[in-house]
Amino acid sequence: MAIQDERVCFTLTAIIKVENLRKTYGTTVAVDDISFEVAEGDIFGLLGPNGAGKTTTVECLQALRQPDSGMMNILGLDPRHDAPALRRQIGSQLQESALPDRIKVWEALDLFASVTPEKLDWQVLLEQWGLAEKRKSTFASLSGGQRQRLFIALALVNNPRIVFLDEMTTGLDPAARRIAWDLIRSIRERGATVILVTHFMDEAEKLCDRLAIVDRGKIVAMDTPQGLITQYASEVRVIFTSDFADLSWLHNIAQIKKITKSGPRVEVEGSGPVLALVAASLVEHGITPTDLRIEQPTLEDVFLKLTGKDIGE
Amino acid sequence: MRTLVKLSWVELKLFVREPITVIFTLALPIIFLFVMGGVFGNEASTDDGGMVVFRGVGPLDYYIPAYFALVMMAIGTVALPVHLAGYRERGILRRLRASSISVWSVLGSQLAVSFVIAIIGSILILICGIIAYSPNMPQEVGLLILAFLLGLISFTAFGFFLGAVLPSTRAAQGLGLILFFVMMILGGAGPPPEVLTGAMDIIGQITPLRHVIIILQDPYLGFGWNQNASLIVAGITVVAIALAARYFRWE
After folding, report:
1. How far apart are the C-alpha atoms of B121 and A277, rounded to whole Å?
2. Mind listing the pLDDT tens digit for each residue in A251-274?
3. Whether A97 and B94 lie within 8 Å, measured CB to CB
4. Which among B92, B98, B250 is the nearest to A87, CB-wise?
C-alpha cells in the first residue's frame, strides 16, 4: 500500500521520470546514463545527433526495448512490467515503421481504434489531420506528408495521455514541416504530453517547453530552449559592412570579445548591450552603416558549444 | 477479441488485394488439377509393369483431396512466411505492437485468413473437378472436416515457424518456393507417389505434405481415419508451434 501511495503522489509532479537509464547492444553503448523528468502537459524534446541514444531511450519508455539498468516511471507504471497497461495510455509515431501497402486509411484507423475499450470517433481525426479526402486511399499511395499525418492520427486514436513523436518531420519538405509543427502544438492543446525526438535545432527551439540535449548516450544539458541559450550561448554577434580599414578602437568597448573582418564584412562578438555600444561608437567615428544588425545566439550555438560539433556531422 | 476480429477482416481484404498471392494459392492448384486430369484422366489403372498407382483409385479421385493439401501448403510455405517476414522487415509488426495489438491477434488473424482461403480453395478445386471429370464425392465428410482442420493448423504453424525464422521477404520467397515445389513433386501432389523410388521416395516420406495428403485422402476415399499419418501431422504441428513461439521476433 505504501508503494501505491507513493506512486499517486509522484504522478502529480511528473508524468515521466527516468533515472540512470542504460542500454547496450553487445559492446555498443546506446544509452549510457540518462535521467530526466517530464511535467504533464509539456512538449519535452530530446535533441541530438543520429546515434546519440534518443530513440533507444524513448523505445525503452514505450516498452519496446528492455533497458539493462535504471529506473523508469511513466504514468505511475514501469514499462518493464506493465507494458500492456502502459501501451493503452500512450500513442506512438515510430521511426522506421510502416503499414501494409494495401491497407486503406480508414481501415488502419478503425483497426487501431479497436484496441481501446472506449468508443472513439476516429472520423474526427480524419478531418483534423486533413485525411478525409484520402480515407479510401491505400497506404502505398500516400505521400510522405500524408503518411506522417496518418501516423500521428494513429498515435492519437486511443486518446493517449502521452504521445511519442520520433523524428516525425524527417523527410518532409519545409512547408509540410511548418504544418507538422502546428499539428504538434494542437496535440498539446488536447491536453496530452508530447515527447519529441528530433535532430532539427529549429524544431526543438520553436516547439519544446523543455528539452534535453543528448550526446553519446548522455544528457549534456537540460532546460527551456531560452534557458539553454542564456546559459551556454550568451554571446551575440553584431554584423555590418564598412570600408573603413582600421576599426581597432572598437576594442575599447569592454563587452566586446572578438572582432572578425573579412573584406568589408565585420563581425563583432560579445555579450550585453553590444549592439547599442557598437552603434554609438561607429556614429562617433563618422561611420553609419546601413546594414548594422544583430544575430541572437540559437540552439545551434548551444549545441556546438556543448558537443563540439555540428549536428549534421 | 474485437481487435482480433477487426484484424482478421482487414487481413482477409489485404489478401484479396494481393493478386500474386491469390493466383499462387487459389489458381495454381486448379491449373495443376487440370494438367493432371488431362494427363491421367480418371480411370483407375495400373502402370505398364502392373504396379498399383494412385492408391488404386481414379487419378482425379486421388488428386482432388491431395490438392486441398496443396492449397494449405501454398499458404504455409509461401503466403504466410512472406507475409510475416515482410511485416517484420518493414516495421509493420513494430507498429502493431506499439499500439498494443497482441501477438495472439497478429497470429490469430493469420490463422483465420488461412482457414477461409483454404476452404475457398478446396471448394473451388472440388467444383472444378466435378465439372470436368465427375469424380467420386467425399465419402466420410465428418472425418474429412476433422482432417482438414488438422492439416490446416499444421501448415499454418509451419508458416508461423518459417515466418519467425526467415529474416526477410526475399529469403521467405526463395526458401518458400523451393519447399513448395520439392514437397509438391515428392510429397505426392505431382507424379503418383508409387513411381518415386529410392532417395526420392525417402524424401517424399519425410515431407509434411505426404502425410497431410494421406489424412485428407483416406476419409475422402472412404478408407477411414489414418492413425499413423494423423499422429505425424499432429507431431509436426506441435514442433512447429514450439519453434515459432521460441523464435518469434517483433523486429
Report:
1. 86
2. 888 888 888 888 888 889 888 888
3. yes
4. B98
